[in-house]
Design the sequence.
């Protein structure tokens, strides 16, 4: 009996060490993060050595304040394994924020007065402060090939008058001095707010960040149903656009005027794509998986993996340079002892990281990076006949010697075959749920041809038609 338990114990310990070794090897074998740049055509991101960078983000908004070191590692390991390369995080959710170790970020809630201590020893509370913990997260992310997109101060605090221009300039100087040497930083000005609400603060923050830290990319995270380009497209500090398509379904959208887009997040891409000069754009906050439709009624239907895939493929195929996924419990890092859970959250972050949609996002990134990248353009002229509306709409994009057409419902796709070069076209179906390809066959490259997607026509039976010459 004792011998049996000894054998089991040894095997369990060996398995544990093997998993740790595998995780360490995974981190060690990653390519080091590189500075990010805008591609010459102004549409996409690239690394310093000229390779394509497809932004696959996750919203870990409260990562800095709610997770301890071991939890941070668990989260980052999981996101790295699932293919995410950017985590969007609030530096200051509020000016009174306190982290999981009980450390406050600011003295008296003043952004111009960060609280720092000598040293950064995590085993000595007197030496390990709020900003040391932020440093730890940034470094751990870099070791895993992940960029941290940091929102300096959330928009609601500026709207409430808790931050002024003089304070934010001093705060931006502190941030850039501390983090400009970290390669994996991206700055997100704003924070779920219209640019007109506190615009002097946003301009001062954007200009100071860009002047003091020109080596890192910078944008503005806007209010739902808005895009950064509305207010700041022509500002030199805004290097790429981000929009928030929001969490409401078609019949819940109460937006006014030109931005009454409902769930059609591709329309923001289309709008930004037409602006000059060309700047990358993408959906930085679509509907989160497991959050109630419309946000505020916990009895409402909840967005699921089908929905987050749809938002992703629609926006990217329309010309987006990436996509940010979100999950209700993960974005607020909800924990068992929390009393401030929002939006009807019913589970905890460490379980929600395995929601179906989170594992499916990497397939989009892999698909886009498997083709020629910088020459890709949206091209609805590939579609013969009616492109459809709402859930039935088809989306086409193409690059050198290939075309991709997405259907959310699995409807039949009619294609103008002669849009690509070559005498014959190889066709296959790509499954956004598992990333697998199914060959259809080779076809003469002329005329119009119909391709019938597998399965029944219904929302969530989504497929990508892949055509290669």
Sequence:
């Amino acid at each position: 009996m004792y011998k049996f338990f000894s054998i089991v114990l040894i095997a369990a310990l060996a398995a544990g060490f093997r998993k740790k070794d595998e995780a360490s090897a995974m981190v060690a074998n990653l390519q080091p993060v590189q500075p990010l740049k805008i591609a010459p055509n102004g549409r996409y991101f690239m690394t310093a050595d000229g390779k394509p960078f497809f932004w696959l983000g996750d919203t870990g908004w409260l990562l800095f304040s709610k997770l301890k070191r071991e939890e941070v590692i668990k989260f980052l390991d999981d996101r790295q394994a699932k293919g995410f390369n950017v985590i969007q995080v609030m530096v200051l959710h509020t000016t009174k924020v306190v982290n999981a170790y009980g450390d406050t970020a600011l003295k008296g809630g003043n952004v111009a007065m960060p609280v720092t201590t000598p040293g950064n020893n995590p085993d000595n509370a007197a030496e390990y402060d709020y900003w040391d913990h932020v440093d730890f997260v940034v470094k751990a992310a870099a070791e895993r090939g992940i960029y941290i997109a940091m929102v300096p101060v959330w928009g609601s605090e500026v709207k409430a008058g808790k931050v002024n221009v003089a304070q934010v300039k001093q705060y931006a100087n502190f941030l850039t001095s501390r983090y400009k040497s970290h390669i994996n930083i991206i700055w997100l000005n704003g924070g779920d707010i219209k640019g007109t609400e506190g615009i002097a603060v946003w301009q001062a923050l954007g200009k100071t960040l860009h002047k003091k830290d020109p080596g890192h990319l910078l944008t503005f995270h806007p209010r739902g149903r808005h895009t950064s380009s509305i207010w700041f497209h022509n500002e030199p500090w805004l290097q790429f656009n981000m929009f928030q398509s929001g969490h409401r379904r078609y019949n819940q959208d109460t937006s006014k005027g030109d931005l009454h887009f409902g769930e059609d997040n591709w329309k923001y891409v289309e709008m930004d794509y037409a602006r000059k000069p060309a700047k990358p754009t993408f959906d930085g906050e679509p509907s989160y998986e497991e959050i109630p439709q419309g946000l505020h009624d916990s009895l409402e239907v909840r967005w699921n993996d089908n929905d987050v895939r749809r938002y992703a493929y629609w926006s990217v195929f329309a010309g987006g340079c990436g996509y940010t996924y979100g999950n209700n419990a993960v974005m607020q890092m909800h924990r068992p002892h929390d009393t401030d859970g929002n939006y009807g959250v019913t589970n905890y972050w460490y379980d929600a990281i395995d929601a179906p949609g989170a594992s499916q996002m990497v397939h989009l990134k892999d698909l886009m990076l498997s083709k020629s990248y910088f020459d890709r353009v949206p091209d609805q002229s590939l579609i013969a006949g009616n492109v459809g509306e709402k859930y039935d709409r088809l989306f086409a994009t193409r690059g050198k010697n290939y075309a991709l057409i997405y259907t959310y419902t699995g409807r039949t796709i009619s294609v103008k075959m002669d849009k690509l070069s070559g005498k014959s076209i190889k066709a296959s179906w790509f499954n956004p749920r598992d990333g697998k390809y199914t060959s259809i066959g080779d076809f003469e490259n002329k005329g119009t041809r119909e391709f019938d997607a597998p399965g029944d026509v219904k929302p969530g039976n989504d497929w990508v038609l892949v055509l290669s010459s």
